[in-house]
Amino acid sequence: QVQLGESGGGLVQPGGSLRLSCAASGRAFSTYAAAWFRQAPGKEREFVGRINWGGARTYYADSVKNRFTISRDNAKNTLYLQMNSLTPEDTAVYYCAARDLGGEFTTPRAWSYWGQGTQVTVSS
Description:
The chain has 124 residues and is mainly beta.
């Protein structure tokens, strides 16, 4: 069992940066793949990016590639999402997720554990 909790959201101007954190409980987190999703008002939850258990492999949605970076510190049981060059289209609630299984990973149903989300608003 893994419990996740996001932090670091807030209001940022277009072009700005923000770093989200996701604190995990449970020693097993270091063996789990992890991901970030986001959900804008009136839209479905969408995949942002994924990182493997060791942190060596990442994969991003085209909409955030070259702007967002996922990393993790397994010693601290923490997942990160560094977001740069933010635009109003990035406004959403951001969720972290984890799982101990492989396979398809871009849909929410593929992930077992979820945080409660943190709001990111990009506006001038």
